[in-house]
Design goal:
This protein is an alpha+beta fold. The protein has helices at about 5, 35-45, and strands spanning about 15-20, 25-30. It has a two-stranded antiparallel sheet. The N and C termini lie far apart (about 35 Å). The mean pLDDT is about 80.
Amino acid sequence: MSVYPMAHVIEAIPTLLLFKDGQLIRTFVGVQSEAALTGAILAAAENPVIHPSSAP
């Protein structure tokens, strides 16, 4: 069983949690447009995640 349901509180449905490299990078609550979701996914795919331990 994953630890994500315990670590991230879902208070409304629908809720979408967008993860990259194990890091939560975006949360959507409520109905979203296809363009908003597609844009967020494409932006996440193009941009690297900066981990706090690797920041200068």
